[in-house]
């Protein structure tokens, strides 16, 4: 998912670690190249700038230990800073699903992978956590999307709320909550309608559903391939409805990785999961340390 960034950084660090003694100038040159690599990966400018500043401060302020070369030390600082920028100061928590039935509100633009992600998370909770899960689609404008969630439900062996024609999103949300309580479900997913663009109608509907549903988690699903756009979408949704975390999809594709790297710093919201393909198992919790390791190869 970060192939080109990895390659670029690999080149910079190869040169750096091969050189024995490093001058301050070597470090500055290397970090300048790191900055360019981050920008090429579509990391936002303030994030890239801050990143380099922090690594530079550490590099100039640190005593070189004997066990590693100065070059290796710079690589370590970059690794630590990558981890920090990906995760923020606190690692993301597990999904809050205590006090059943816990409602998870899924929001995002059409085509982001919201319905697929809803089903993937439901399957995970069922198989890994032994939870009884209910799915409900609120996409009243697109009957095909409602059907799609029901079909995925059958495929993964998870119940979905029967579709009743003519209901509003808020009515479906209420019915889903009632059904979840009566049926002894642990978790109920509300898959809200997506639109091609953020508009007032979409946000009003999501807000109304949120107010009724009182979700424990509001997860925004965004397409990781869209780079800075994904970060902008997250900022807008967070401002309007408040999100508790982000799921970045299509991280199996050849995106440049900028969305992942800027998300936490720009929005303050953690990436909770990454989507890695179309299959129902193709989702992983987001682990900053591992991703940082992957980026540095
Ligand atoms: P929605 O309109 O946001 O509900 O989007 P869908 O869930 O219908 O997904 C749109 C398309 O993206 C479908 O073909 C999915 O299989 C695909 N998709 C979703 N998540 C991923 C992912 O993580 N990786 C890849 N490669 N495809 C995905």
Low-confidence stretches: none
> Approximately what portion of the residues adopt beta-strand conformation?
5-15%
The main sheet orders its strands as 3-2-4-1-5-6-7-8
The span between the termini is 12 Å
**What's the pLDDT, averaged over the residues?**
91
Q: In total, how many beta strands?
A: 8
Described by the principal axes of the CA atoms, the overall outline is: elongated
Which hetero compounds are present in the coordinates?
A: guanosine-5'-diphosphate
Please bin the fraction of helical residues.
40-55%
Structural class: alpha/beta
Radius of gyration: 22 Å
Biggest sheet statistics: 8 strands, mixed
Number of helices: 11
**SSE ordering:** HHHHEHEHEHEHEHEHEEH
What oligomeric state best describes the polypeptide chains here?
Answer: single chain
Describe the structure.
The structure is a single chain. The chain has 297 residues and is of the alpha/beta class. The model has no long low-confidence stretch (mean pLDDT 91). It has helices spanning 3-18, 24-40, 45-61, 70-87, 114-129, 143-156, 169-182, 200-213, 228-240, 258-267, 288-296; strands at 102-108, 133-137, 159-160, 187-191, 217-223, 245-249, 271-275, 283-285. The chain is elongated. Helix 1 runs antiparallel to helix 2 (24-40) and helix 1 packs antiparallel against helix 4 (70-87). The protein contains 11 helices and 8 strands. Helix 10 links the parallel strand 6 and strand 7 (271-275). Guanosine-5'-diphosphate binds next to helix 5. Guanosine-5'-diphosphate is lined by residues 108, 110-116, 194, 249-250, 252-253, 275-278, 282. Keywords: Cytoplasm, GTP-binding, Hydrolase, Nucleotide-binding, Ribonucleoprotein, RNA-binding, Signal recognition particle. It is found in: Cell inner membrane; Cytoplasm. It catalyses: GTP + H2O = GDP + phosphate + H(+). GTP binds at residues 108-115, 191-195, 249-252.
